[in-house]
Amino acid sequence: MLEIKNIVKAYNDVTILNDISLSINNSEIVSILGPSGSGKTTLLNIILGITNPDSGNIIFDDNDITKTPMENRGFNIVFQDYALFPNLNAYKNITYGLRNKANISTQEEVDTLIDLLELREHLDKKIDNLSGGQKQRVALARTLVMKPKILLLDEPLSALDGVIKESIKQKIVTVAKEFKLTTIIVTHDPEEALTISDRVIILNKGKIEQFDTPDNIINNPQSDFVKDFIIQQLAIKKNNIFKLFGGEK
Predict the structure, then answer these.
(1) Per-residue pLDDT band at 225 (split at 50, 70, 90)
(2) Which pTM was predicted?
(3) Pairing of strands 29-33, 207-212
(4) Are strands 199-204 and 29-33 parallel, antiparallel or unpaired?
(5) Which residue has the higher pLDDT, 5 or 229?
(6) How would you class 86 by CB atoms within 10 Å of its CB: exposed for 0-12, middle for 13-18, buried for 19 or more?
(7) Burial, 87: exposed, middle or buried (Cβ in 10 Å; 0-12, 13-18, 19+)?
(8) Pick from 43, 131, 140: which is nearest to 94 by CA?
(9) Strands 29-33 and 182-187
């Protein structure tokens, strides 16, 4: 279990996160949702270890990792821009991290991931010759072969459209469930968060407005902000999400 206790973070006397506390269960898919400037990325960076909180604690499996360096936490992230090596083909990108930690994943496990993410036919292609969806799958495979204790995804679908976006969304869910992997996703898109997650954290101006299941967020919003943010954003996209969770509230 990942526990976030009373996390506070400020930059230049501006509070970005204000006394954030929550718990994420093992194998759970959780999205951090909110408008720009709500503190989503800062919270993700504190969990990953890129950023230190001003106060509060990060507890993972009953161990305080607040001051543990990022490289020793055993977490890993797929960035919004993929961060792939353009001079290497897809396969070498996937296995790059294994050069120094070869025993983390066996060849059989690597092959299983490649097939699960439907990358077999693209392994010899250079990164510039891949589509956005293919790049996202390569980035996901590269992260997963390192067997992270927690998978972090920063706006994983923002550069994708239509059928490709839906395909990658399903791949993320399939991989997370297949490997019983605790997964935390940062997104500004309510549709994305509500259809991919077991629970959703809604942030507003550095505070948690609601941390709940998609069903409860849609049918029982705990504040006017949650209600307005969800409804307005989904209305803009003309999405049918309300019907998926028992009808419009």
Answers:
(1) very high
(2) 0.86
(3) unpaired
(4) parallel
(5) 5
(6) exposed
(7) exposed
(8) 140
(9) parallel
Q: pLDDT band at residue 167, thresholds of 50, 70 and 90? A: confident
Instruction: Report the DSSP beta bridge partners of residue 15.
Output: 10
Determine the Cα–Cα distance for residues 209 and 226; give it in Å rounded to an integer.
7
Angle at which helix 107-116 crosses helix 162-178, to 10 degrees, equals 140
Name residue, tokens 């941390």: 211
- Tokens 């909180």 belong to which residue? 53
The stretch 129-150 carries a mean pLDDT of 90
128 close to 86: Cβ distance less than 8 angstroms: yes
Identify the pLDDT of residue 249.
44
Q: What is the structure's pLDDT at 236?
A: 58
Vertex 71 angle, CA 69 and 75, to 5°: 105
143 near 108, Cβ under 8 Å? no
Whole-number Å distance between alpha carbons of 65 and 59: 6
Q: Please report the sign of the dihedral spanned by the C-alpha atoms of residue 86, residue 108, residue 134, residue 37.
A: negative
Residue 55 CA to residue 40 CA, distance in Å, equals: 17
Write the burial class of residue 240 (CB in 10 Å: 0-12 exposed, 13-18 middle, 19+ buried).
exposed
